[in-house]
Fold:
Amino acid sequence: MIKFEKVSKVYSANLKSERPTSALEDISFEVKEKEFVSIVGRSGAGKTTLLRLILAEEKPSQGKIFFDEEDITKIKAGELPELRRKIGAVFQDYKLLPAKTTYENIAYALEVIGASEKEIVRDVPKVLEIVGLAERVNNFPAELSGGEKQRAAIARALIHRPEVILADEPTGNLDPYHTLDIIRLLLKINELGTTVILATHNKEIINSLGKRVITLEKGKLIRDEENGRFIL
Amino acid sequence: MFTTLGRIFKFGWQNIFRDGGLTAATIFILFLTISLTTSLFLLKDIGQFLITSLQEKADISVYFKTEANEDDILNVRKELSNIPEVKEIKYVSKEEALSSFIEQHKDSQILMESLEEVGGNPFLASLNIKAFQVEQYQLVANFLENTIYKDLIEKVDYYQRKPVIERIFSLISAINRSGILFSLILVILAILVTFNTIRLAIYNSGEEIKIQRLVGASNWFIRGPFLVQGAISGFFATLICLLIFTLISWQLSPRIDFFFPGLNLFQFFIGNFWIIILIQLATGVGLGIISSAIAVRKYLKV
Structure:
């Protein structure tokens, strides 16, 4: 359902750096529906850039990206919301709306697709239970800890039952209990039919999953294994 | 559809309170702009009034020789009233001239004594002519030069008055022209300042807007609340402005009346109340909405 064809992303040189920054180089791979794929690599290897490209937050410098058979490199600005509603993104920096409470942040994902009040009132509390934020319903992001913000971001990414979940370091700030919970949650969602793409550099998670692993290094795809392990 | 619309209004309304300081700044700057447009509107009318009073001061007086009899004078008057440019003609007979002089200056001993010295009635009968517009006095003067009754005329004081009348006329047109230009410049400046203030206020929400885009919100879903905020701010600014202007015009009115008799500011204000409300609302709400719309555009490009 997601296909990368020889994708490169180069950021042009700014005033300070003399040479352009190559974030991704000649990446090609395919993710089928209902797959659970992990993207691993050092910090700066290009994991976030890859996820950004799927979300069409950036356009590749070269190559094509297909989402559900459509070439999203040519996508028009007006069609972007429609694409993004099929995706549930967990951002590394959370990207919660600071002026809304936890409840409102998560409800926003449903409001955006025009869900009824009934659905929202029914689903949001459930998801908040699942990620363990029932006590923080009326707090603003500024009042939440890093881990709580991360869980709120995760909740927002799954509430609207997207086709694919892009999770960028979703457990970075979580304690081992929550980390386990979240990974289990992602696995369960995947079982129910959602494609999951997880970017992480957590060795233990990768090794315990036993799922497909794509390894990036300095922008290049160096390994793509079905039953992957995190190899240092 | 309606749920979404309702949500847009809800968000806009929420944001107003959640970002109180920003809202206050927006309302304040809108209030200033609305006050400016309202003041200009009121001033324009004060200006009109002044101009009309100035025009009233301009007139021609025709003095008739002592020998001229009343019938002839009245005939001249009839002929003059046939001229469409003439607004009003007042006939002051010799006797009336004398009695009004005495009435005006009865307390001045010197003048009364001089009058007695001269003996008899030194005053001439006159026709005091007012035209509709200052430019038309020349026409009247020309007419008087060519009338069959010309010989009865002792003096037409237009030619003495002419420079004054012309000066009044050029003053009036200058005021009109510069007034319009000045108002236009001020209003444009005020609009620019307001737009900029709102732009800065929305700059703060730049990150939020980008996040909303990434989560899949459509442009109108993002824009809407900002427009609502702009509109509501404009509405409140108008309310405050209306209140203050009503108070000020009510308080100032008696004092202005003192300086410019006949100019009742409060009366004018109330009389044009609905127009004023309309102008204020249009300026406030319109500016609020348009500024917000333009300011948000930049961040919607993710």
Q: What stands out?
A: Strands of chain B lie at 60-64, 86-92, 126-131, 153-156.
